[in-house]
Design a protein that fits this description.
The chain is built from 14 helices and 31 strands. The relative contact order is 0.08. Strand 22 and strand 23 form a beta hairpin. By secondary structure, the chain is an alpha+beta fold. The longest helix has 49 residues, at 563-611. The strands form 11 sheets. A 7-stranded mixed barrel has the order 1-2-6-5-4-3-7. It has a 4-stranded mixed beta sheet with strand order 9-8-13-14, with helices on both faces.
Length: 629
């Protein structure tokens, strides 16, 4: 009595199925289709891999989260056509235990009857193994008009697997192996109430593919509205983290040791689904515990909304793929938010201790459903007013669900407007880099939340990670906070390490030029004032050198000389100059007299030649006269 749909029929009815789940139209008779999905086995190694399965077309599809469970195969009632109470078999969840995925055989009754009996036995999901080798089909509800009332109350996940895969699962379980399986789904159903109290069940693991990506995207985008609602007292938010305990018989196994802390009490699946590489499940448990403690310490300081800042920054600054998923990176984020890391470390305790951790024990107890809320087995899960929210995990959808939790006419203004903006840089500078001296910040407030990005100030660009370091660069760097370089003033004297080429300690100093420049003691290091008679005294950035015994220091030659000798040398020098000047004057006067006399003689001779013959001219004239006579 099983209905089989072909793949084309499944696809044609997919949209209708989604509408039924989202709107809760229980009266719809139309079938909905869930296409093939992946079922991943992470242990044992003989079964490790990804397998196809067909999700059942009844109950509440678990879209939007991840469910991790352990496969069980009943010793009796293996087709699950009767109540398991008749066989004294129960799979009720215990605090810290893995959810049970019950493997049953196909045949003899409706798929829905199998799921109903399995759900009443306490399982989280049912895997129906096909009884023949054939392509996967969709398990559907009976088409008879007189259907049982229990159909509307089925809430567990269901999937049909192939005969060959089912045979391998049975063999492994009978052998005593712990078979771990992962499944994913999406659904929605908010529940209104007068006061909105909501929980977010999440995980710090960022290597689980699109599911983890969408989860951190939600945290980033919803952070602003969540903090506004929390600060104004409209909501009470609590984050939670799922862990499981390792069965006592497997505590010493390789799987438990690598995936658990506190001797198998608190476990998480391997992030990469591979025990031989990357991070282990226990690393995820410790980081989950740290995030719970961040919330508790922030709540004790009356600032529970800082959890959103921490989780967002940790995802950005400490990703697994960059090998930064460490305590050191987490402490850096904690410090940037101004939280007490010592109180957080005390809250975390000793992960290697063979005893209960009170924080994680409380988390395991909270996983078990109370009242109208069922067990939390899917990641991520949002619980609003003690009812699990089903649907796409984004800001708009979740905000509408939260607003639906307020009593009519009591909604805050944020529920009546889509404009939700917060300035996260006003408190603790948003956890970003901040130069208090220059009043320069890397925090930028945006609609989706703050970002830490080094700024541009007066045309000078700062470079760095924006969280812990930003440094001015370019030619104008010295104009902004001395270019980020060392600078100090003592007794009215200022020294700076800022240069056009970067930060460099000035002469007389040594250091990195950024945080420190220390005075060089030239006297001790024997770099100056080293003559025998010299007396050296170090000063800030320089030195003073003197001479004893009436001697005078000559810095150019780094030597000491007598003051009397210096005076004698000075007078001798002056006499040399005096006599030199006198000799030059006398020589000049003699040259002057000689040139003047020669000039006057030549002038006088020229004048006399015009009026009377000279001696040689008279002799010539007389001689000529006597000849004529």
């Amino acid at each position: 009595m099983e209905l089989r749909f072909t793949p084309p029929a499944m696809r044609r009815l997919l949209l209708l199925a989604w509408a039924v789940v989202m709107c809760g139209l229980c009266f719809c008779e139309g079938r909905f289709v869930v296409e093939k999905n992946s079922l991943k086995v992470t242990a044992p190694d003989t079964l490790k891999g990804t397998y196809e399965c067909a999700i059942g077309n009844f109950g509440v599809p678990q879209y939007g989260g991840t469910m991790v469970g352990v496969v069980a195969y009943p010793k009796a009632n293996r087709k699950a056509c009767k109540s398991f109470d008749d066989f004294d078999i129960s799979y009720k969840a215990k605090p810290g235990s893995f959810p049970t995925f019950l493997l049953v055989d196909r045949g003899d009754c409706f798929f829905t009857k199998k799921a109903w009996n399995a759900q009443n036995a306490g399982v989280a999901a049912i895997l129906v193994a096909d009884d023949k080798d054939e392509p996967l089909i969709t398990m559907d509800t009976p088409e008879e008009s007189g259907r049982e009332d229990y159909l509307e109350n089925i809430t567990i996940a269901s999937a049909l697997i192939t005969k060959s895969f089912g045979d391998r699962l049975r063999k492994a379980v009978k052998k005593g192996d712990m078979v771990n399986v992962n499944l994913d789904w999406r659904e929605s159903l908010p529940h209104p109430d007068e006061r909105v109290e909501y929980e977010f069940w999440t995980n710090s693991n960022d290597e689980c593919g699109p599911k983890c990506d969408s989860q951190i995207d939600f945290v980033k985008t919803f952070k602003g509205p969540a903090q506004i609602l929390e600060k104004k007292g409209y909501t009470q938010f609590t984050p939670h983290y799922i862990t499981w305990y390792c069965p006592e018989s497997f505590t010493l196994s390789k799987q438990c040791k690598s995936q658990c802390i506190n001797h198998g009490r608190y476990c998480a699946p391997d992030p990469e689904q591979d025990f031989s590489k990357g991070y282990d499940g226990k690393d995820v448990v410790v980081q989950n515990l740290r995030q719970v403690c961040v919330y508790q310490v922030a709540k004790d300081s009356q600032k529970p909304w800082l959890w959103w800042d921490y989780v967002t920054d940790f995802a950005i600054r400490c990703p697994m793929k960059e090998n930064k998923y460490t305590k050191e990176c987490a402490d850096g984020v904690i410090k940037s938010l101004g939280l007490d890391h010592k109180a957080i470390d005390k809250c975390i305790g000793d992960p290697d201790a063979d005893k209960e951790n009170p924080v994680l024990k409380a988390e395991q107890d909270a996983q078990i459903g109370k009242g109208a809320r069922g067990d939390v087995t899917i990641l991520p899960t949002l619980v609003i007013n003690n009812r699990q929210y089903r649907g796409k995990l984004d800001k708009g959808a979740v905000l509408k669900a939260l607003c639906a939790g307020f009593k009519e006419t009591t909604e805050p203004a944020v529920c009546l407007s889509e404009d939700i903006q917060t300035n996260e840089c006003l408190e603790n500078n948003g956890g970003c880099w901040h130069d208090k001296a220059a009043n320069i910040s890397a925090c930028k407030d945006t609609f989706r939340g703050r970002v830490c990005e080094c700024p541009v100030v007066k045309g000078v660009k700062f470079v760095g990670d924006g969280y812990t370091h930003c440094e001015a660069s370019g030619s104008g760097r010295c104009e902004i906070d001395n270019g980020g370089c060392w600078k100090e003033t003592r007794n009215g004297l200022t020294h700076s390490a800022s240069t056009d080429g970067g930060c460099k300690c000035p002469d007389g100093f040594k250091g990195d030029g950024v945080h420190k420049c220390e005075d060089v003691d030239e006297c001790k290091e024997n770099t100056a004032c080293q003559c025998k008679e010299c007396k050296c005294k170090n000063t800030w950035g320089s030195y003073e050198c003197g001479c004893g015994g009436g001697l005078l220091y000559m810095k150019e030659h780094d030597t000491c000389i007598s003051k009397n000798a210096a005076a004698q040398i000075g007078w001798n020098f002056l006499w040399v100059i005096f006599f030199g000047l006198a000799a030059a004057g006398i020589a000049g006067y003699a040259v002057y007299k000689y040139r003047i006399r020669s000039y006057m003689d030549s002038e006088i001779r020229a004048i006399m030649a015009q009026y009377m013959p000279l001696d040689n001219q008279g002799d010539i004239s007389s001689h000529s006269h006597h000849i004529e006579m």
